[in-house]
Amino acid sequence: MKVKTIVLAGSILAAIGTTSTNAEIIGFFPSDDSKVTIKIKNNEVEIINGDKIEKKIEFDTEKTLNIEISDYDFDKNLDFSIWHSDDGKGVYDIYRIFLYNKKTKAFVEAQSKCGDEFINVRIDKKTKTIASTIFEDNTPKICHTKL
Prior knowledge:
A five-stranded antiparallel sheet has the order 1-2-3-4-5, with no helix packed on it. Strands 6, 7, 8, 9 and 10 form a five-stranded antiparallel sheet that branches. It has a three-stranded antiparallel sheet with strand order 11-12-13, with no helix packed on it. The protein has strands at 14-18, 23-31, 34-41, 44-49, 52-58, 66-70, 79-85, 93-101, 106-109, 118-119, 122-124, 129-136, 139-145. It is built from no helices and 13 strands.
């Protein structure tokens, strides 16, 4: 599986490198005093906080995993998401969002208020919410989640 990185302009403070073994390594500073490295290899994501592995997360997909760095909860600290296209026709993007907690210096996975996952995420700066797609009786609707 090829790994692709998507970055919002100006959000990544340091990119560490890429290897030729389908691995991606991204470094960034979620707050002034904390450095985090995210490694993606195949369908596993490893979060390294400082020099310690904080957690490993498996993804059940054959699709390319993508990283997006942003402030999803509007607390002025950088968070990140890992997303991939759905395993069907690849029409929808499925996100898992991880929020940085400055007190604990750790990441916590966010939950959508309208379902099991975030689909086609858009940051709504006006309402300070995450807008995502949900389906009710096969009809797409927008869900706003305040993180």
